Amino acid sequence: MTRAFNFSAGPAAMPLEVLQQAAAEMTDWHGSGMGVMEMSHRGKEFISIYEQAESDFRALLQVPANFKILFMQGGGIAENAIVPLNLSRGGIVDFVVTGSWSQKSFKEAARYCTPRLAASSQADGFKSLPAPASWQLDASAQYVHLCSNETIHGVECHTLPDLKALGSDAPLVIDFSSHVLSRAVDWSRVGLAFGGAQKNIGPAGVTLVVVREDLLGHALSVCPSAFDYQLVANNGSMYNTPPTYGIYMAGLTFQWIARQREGSLSGVAALEQRNIAKAKYLYDCIDNSQLYVNEVQASCRSRMNVPFFLRGDDGQPLLEATHPRNAAFLEGAKARGLLQLKGHKSVGGMRASIYNAIPMEGVEALVDYLRDFEKAQA
Ligand SMILES: *Cc1c(COP(=O)(O)O)cnc(C)c1O
């Protein structure tokens, strides 16, 4: 079978080269006589895999030396608790709510601290981002939470806010689950970043936490030991058994990213340029059609997650997945090897996630289909 283009929001497509390498090494890693899943996490083989993955990630995203890189478990949703457990000191935390994921974070934090709504775009249906100058930041906030790419609503923060310039000394915490490694990160504006692996890195089960050292060491006493960043950092992410195979797969993805080239660019910079081109090609097709619509303000459209609707005969967006036109669209897509385009159940319609592993050819195949399907409706 030829491989399909898979537009799943997560767990999502991985680079074919990575899967093939993992398959080739499945039963015997580098002549060790064992597969990676069967190795002790404390043995020299796995330690070398771990150290390579960590240093490759640091190099790819130019993570400064005063940040720790932790490989944890529990995903982004567990981090909604683990971050306040570690950073809130039980005090006030400011939240910028820009979609489903930051809303979830805001709600979960109330178990451990006093979350404040500093800004929200809910009134606007999460179709734009509140301008940082309008955020109502609290001077005593322990940190400010922002989801830098809202996977469900398709809203991306293209420039991280400079909290200092807004008069705040609080560290910025970003949930970058669904666009990590798709672009550079300005670490001078970030205190902590977290993300699950299953969008842009590898299989579900690994959570990356990148945290500035000075923020460590203030976990609440109720914080589970395995989730205390300080303990995890002191033990090189091996306080408990880490998700070893997922870390190995993430490491293979990091090496794949390092090999990517676009003109004179390489690594994340090459992917960033490619991602800009992919997103433009898809949004242009949607904007120039009569049938499809994406309502997110152009300046904050996500490069990774592109939600869109087909219109009904009355011109209104068709939300229900079961509507015959939506059903026909998904069936026709599948027949062409374009998979998992159904939108998130909370918003309906369609969504194309075009993560790093989706090449330009995948977006071209999708756009060809969008045009053909629209013609067939006329
Ligand atoms: C997918 C996702 C999560 C949740 O990840 P889990 O692994 O299910 O916990 C959190 N935040 C964002 C932005 C996501 O895209």
What does this structure look like?
The chain has 378 residues and is α/β, with parallel strands linked by helices. It has 2 domains: 242 residues, Aspartate Aminotransferase, domain 2; 116 residues, Alpha-Beta Complex (Aspartate Aminotransferase, domain 1). Helix content is 32%, strand content 16%. The chain has 9 helices and 16 strands. The strands form 5 sheets. The chain has a 7-stranded mixed sheet with strand order 2-10-9-8-5-3-4. Helix 2 packs across helix 6, helix 3 crosses helix 4 and helix 7 runs parallel beside helix 9. It is globular and about 65 Å long. The mean pLDDT is 97. The site of pyridoxal-5'-phosphate (PLP) has 12 residues, from helix 3.
Instruction: Indicate the proportion of strand residues.
Output: 15-25%
Could you tell me how far the N terminus lies from the C terminus, measured between alpha carbons in angstroms?
Answer: 33 Å
SSE order: EHHEHEHEEEEEEEHHEEHEEHEEH
> Regarding CATH, which class of the largest domain?
Alpha Beta
CATH superfamily of the largest domain: Type I PLP-dependent aspartate aminotransferase-like (Major domain)
**Fraction of residues in helix:** 25-40%
Rg, Cα atoms, Å? 21 Å
CATH architecture of the largest domain: 3-Layer(aba) Sandwich
Tally of helical segments: 9
Number of domains: 2
Largest sheet data: 7 strands, mixed
CATH topology of the largest domain: Aspartate Aminotransferase, domain 2
**Compounds present?**
pyridoxal-5'-phosphate
**SSE-based structural type:** alpha/beta
Describe the global form. globular
Give the number of DSSP strands: 16
Q: Which spans have pLDDT < 50 for at least 5 consecutive residues? A: none
Mean pLDDT across every amino acid position? 97
Walk across the major sheet and give the strand order. 2-10-9-8-5-3-4
